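re: ur question from the group chat, yeah i did fold both. here u go
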Amino acid sequence: MFWLVRFGRGILAFNPAQASGQLSFVVIAFEGIQSRIQMGYWLCAENDIEDLTVNSWRWGATVPLIQESNILEPDVEIFGDRMVFAKMDSCLKLADWFENNFLKDLDEGSRIGLDGKTTSEPDDGTFHRDDLAKNYSADRDWLLQFVQFLRECGGFNTLG
C-alpha cells in the first residue's frame, strides 16, 4: 500500500510498510509536466526560468555533441551517456560552442544525426528497429531552443 501526499504542485508516494525507521519518498508527478517528461529528459534550470523538456531521441543526439565540445568536466558535470550537471560558466561556453560549430552552418529544417552527419531529410517519425542510431537526431529548432536555455539557465541538471 502506498500513501500519496500532495505538496504544492507535486505528489509524493511512500510505503509505510517499508518504513523501518526511515520513510522513503518518491516524487511521482508534478502538475502540468508529468506527461511531458515521459520518454524524455527534463533540464532543470538553476535560475528562475522555465525548465526545458526534450525527448530521448533529441537528447540522445545532443549529449554526444556536448561531449565533443570537451567543455564539461567528465565525472563532475557529465555522467554516463545522458546525465548532465552543468555549471553556469560551462553553459555559456556551450552556447557559444553550439553557435560556432553547428548553428552557423545548419540550415532551416536540417538536423544532426547520432553519427554527427547533417541531413536536410525530415524526420518522418519512423522507428528504425534495424539501426537504432537512425532514430536519434538534433534538429536546428531544438538546438536554437537549447542554446537560448543555456544562456539563461545559470546552470542545469537533467532528470530522466
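okk and heres the other one u asked abt
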Amino acid sequence: MIIVVFYKKDLLEFFKIKLNIFLLLFFILWLIKNFLLSGCFIFPVNLTCINVSWSPGVDEIETYKNIIKSFARDTRERLRYTDFNHTIYTFNWFLPWFKDYALNTALLKISFFIIFFTSISFFLLKRFTKLLTLGSNDYKIHSLVFIILVINLLIWFQAPEIRFGWGTIISINCYLLSTLFFYNIFFSKFHSNTLKYLTIFFLLILIFDNKKNFTTHNLLNPYITKVDYSKIVKIYDLKDVSIYRSLNRKCYDFEEICVNSVKDEYFLEKKFGYLIFTKYKLF
C-alpha cells in the first residue's frame, strides 16, 4: 500500500532498482519460512495462518500471542502478566511499564534524549536560522521513511520488549541524527572523500583495538565464558526437576531451572515438547 501511494504511476521504477527486488525476494522467503515453521505467514497473526497439519492451531497461537504481549507489557517483576484485562484489553499497563521498564532501560533512555535533542534542534535551526537545507522536494521521501518507522514502532508496542525493537529503535535514532547532520549547511563543506577517510580511520582504530582477538586460535575455537556457579543453590524439587536459586543473580547458562528471586509457588507444564515454567498455572 505504501509503495502504491508513493510511486503511483512510477511503480515500475520500483522494480527497476535491484535493491528493491532483492528486498522483495527476501521478504517473500521470510514469509515462506514462517509458514513452513508455524503454518502462519506472519506468526503469530491468526489472519495469516492456514490450518495445516504442522500448525499448533488457532487457539494455541492466540494463547501464545497473548502471553508474549502480556509478558512484555508488564513491569520487570512480571507480577501481572497473566492478567490480560490489565495488559491487553486496556491501556492500564502503559504508565507502570513506562515508569518501571522504559525509564530503566539504557537504549530507551538514550533514544528519548536523541528524539528530544533532534526535535529541539530542528525547531530552533529551522525557525531562527538558515542552517538547514531541507527543501520541499525532500518531504516525499522523508514522509515515506516516517510512515514506515511509525508503523514499525506501533508493531513493536504490541510487545514492547527491548529485544523485539532493536532494529526499529536504532533506526529511528540513526535517521534523526543523520537527517540533522546531512541537511545542515555545514555538511556541504565536507568533501565526500573526507567522510570516506574518516570511516576507514575509525574502522582501523576498532581493528587495532581488537587485534588480540584476530588470531587463528580464536577463529577456530569459539570463545567460552567462564562462569562461577558456586553461588547457585537448590531450593526445592518440583515433579521431575529441581529448582535452583542464584544468590548473586547470575543464572547465566545454568543447565537446570534457575531463578534470581524465589516465588511462593511454581508450575510446570509441557506443551509441544517444551517445558513451560511459570509461577501461575496457565493451562
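fwiw on the second one: The mean pLDDT is 82. The CA atoms of residues 37 and 250 lie 33 Å apart. idk if thats what u expected
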